[in-house]
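Final report, Chapter 2: Outcomes

The project's central promise was a pipeline that accepts a single protein chain and returns its three-dimensional structure in a standardized token representation, suitable for archiving and comparison. That pipeline is now operational. To close this chapter, we reproduce one record exactly as it appears in the project archive, with the input sequence first and the structure output second.
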Amino acid sequence: MIRSHFGLSEDPFALRDIRLLSHQQEIHDTLRVHSQQGGLCLVVGRPGTGKSVIKESLRLLLEDFPKNHNLILIGQVELLSNLDLAVNQDIKSRVTYSVITRRMNDETMRQCMEYQLDRIGLAHNTFTTRATELIIRTADGVLRRCRNLCLASMLEAVRASAGTTIDIDTVNRVLLQPHWQKQVDLTDF
């Protein structure tokens, strides 16, 4: 539906063929070196900060190395506090590399949006400046939120037959959906 509305040959914001961001590439390169030598690595971060993208980029690479020499734990930040427990000290003492994936800054989020638009052949002004600013502000540095909000806004534009430019009103209609609301906003229900 989105493809025909916007005249696309590919799905927008698809999760395949994702280019690693510079900080993700650095983590990937470090993990690649550690995997060749063997070791235990930790990649932790909040949901949506790029851990799964790094994991997918390593999946094929790690098939070439002996499985008994590599272990990469990917989890949320709470994994670090669990490793501090006395029962897990032996595991923690074997870690050779660890990293925390952080939320992204606004400019990086904007570049990710523009890269995805370039990839599918849409102009950067598909999202108006105000719509882009609202998406970036709402995503709060979480790439998954940015992707999902862009995709939901495109779906809303199709539903509303609103043309091929997504403005702030379209994004605001998406943000009225309950799953985008904070718990505090849902007290009337």
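Archive annotation: The chain has a mean pLDDT of 83.
This record, like all others produced under the grant, will remain available to the consortium after the project formally closes.
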